[in-house]
Amino acid sequence: MPLPLSKRPAWAEIDLDALASNVRKIRSLIGPDVRFYAVCKNNAYGCGAGECAATMRNAGVDAFAVSDPEDAERIRDAGINAPILLYGATTPDQAEAIADLGLIVTIHDRHGLEAFEQLQRSVQVHVEVDCGYGRLGFVPEEWPAVFERLKQARHLEIMGLYTHLVRAEDRLAIDRQVRRLKQAISAARAAGFQDLETMAASSRVLLGYPELTWTAVNPGRALYGMMEQPWLDGLTFDPVIRSIKSRVLQVKTLPADFEVDDARHTADPGRLKTAVIAFGFKDGLPAQPDGGTVLVRGQRARIIAGRATEHTILDVTDIPDVVPGDEVVLVGVQGGDRITAAQAVQFYGMPMIELMARMSLSVPRIYSGGA
């Protein structure tokens, strides 16, 4: 479906067939018996949680994991009734409202435990343990007492425990965290929890340490084709954000006496031809650093000056016949050239999962595939 003419001409193109393919690749890696939580945080990394969840469910995921209740609501609004794990994202005073959503909640400290326990109603729970990340989760000295208390919490259905591993590129760091995770499992078993779901494998852990799949996995960036080095040498994943696009609003040659801070204008005043496009930092394109290129009429056009709120200026001096309405590709294919997400990361100095999500979240999304 094309972008409506009433919309500002800036949009993202989302490839749901690529997403389904990525799901199948991960399922083939983990096998049929490991529970597959597809991570949909940040509105599915900018790809749209409702639309993506429907495709992923059809492709073989078992459940979803989100980082805020709004993403869970998007999935439910898409008519999907699969289990949804809510990562630690709310405060104790929100316990009743979160329980009303029918999610698997995360308990990561005693305040949250008390809040959900005091509801005196059935709530499904995952326990988050901190094995070295230093973020959310119970630390090792708390584990024995926490699991003993959870055993007495009659209304809380303890389904599993999970942790987030840090420094995935460092085998020794991972080994230390895994030793702590095994201690957490032992503490749970000592309290009587024998068959808890155990999860520690995000995308990078899944690819780098396949032995750590345990009984559940929660990949995110791999699903959306947002892996970066050094994780690209094995299994490859297709980009789900196929393109980020805009259109030219105006083309003109700048007068020689204009105060434009550009080397080409300074060296040869009066010959710099520019095109202004409908894409700026409000659309997720970083204001700094300067530089980068886009595609116009199948050729590279460099970005000049700083990006403004809603506009970016291009040098199209060497590209003939550029006119208002011409399509501009910030990420994707045009003619015989392509700007990849990895190249965009180099241009703008931002991690892929941040840059691509920022741009796709900020503009309308057009979907293809996924039937």
Structure, briefly:
By secondary structure, this protein is of the alpha/beta class.
Radius of gyration: 24 Å
- Please identify the top-level CATH class of the largest domain: Alpha Beta
Which strand order does the major sheet show? 2-3-4-5-6-7-8-9
Number of domains: 2
Give the structural class.
alpha/beta
Tell me the fraction of residues in β-strands, as a range.
15-25%
Total number of β-strand segments?
Answer: 17
Low-confidence stretches: none
The N- to C-terminal Cα distance equals: 14 Å
Average predicted confidence as pLDDT: 96
Oligomer: single chain
Molecular shape: elongated
Query: Architecture of the largest domain, CATH level 2?
Result: Alpha-Beta Barrel
Largest sheet: 8 strands, parallel, barrel
H/I helix tally: 12
CATH names the topology of the largest domain as: TIM Barrel
The CATH H-level homologous superfamily of the largest domain: Alanine racemase
Q: What is the element string, with H for helices and E for strands?
A: EHEHHEHEHEHEHEHEHEEHEEEEEEHHE
Work out the helicity level. 25-40%
Describe the protein in words.
The chain is an alpha/beta fold. It has helices at residues 16-30, 41-45, 49-59, 69-77, 95-100, 110-117, 143-152, 171-190, 203-208, 263-267, 341-348, 352-361, and strands at residues 10-15, 35-39, 63-66, 84-86, 104-107, 123-128, 156-162, 197-201, 216-217, 241-253, 273-277, 293-296, 299-304, 312-315, 327-334, 337-339, 365-368. The protein folds into 2 domains: 34-217, Alanine racemase (TIM Barrel), CATH 3.20.20; 241-368, Beta Barrel (Lyase, Ornithine Decarboxylase, Chain A, domain 1). It has 12 helices and 17 strands. An 8-stranded parallel barrel has the order 2-3-4-5-6-7-8-9, surrounded by 4 helices. A hairpin with a 7-residue loop joins strand 13 (299-304) and strand 14 (312-315). The mean pLDDT is 96.
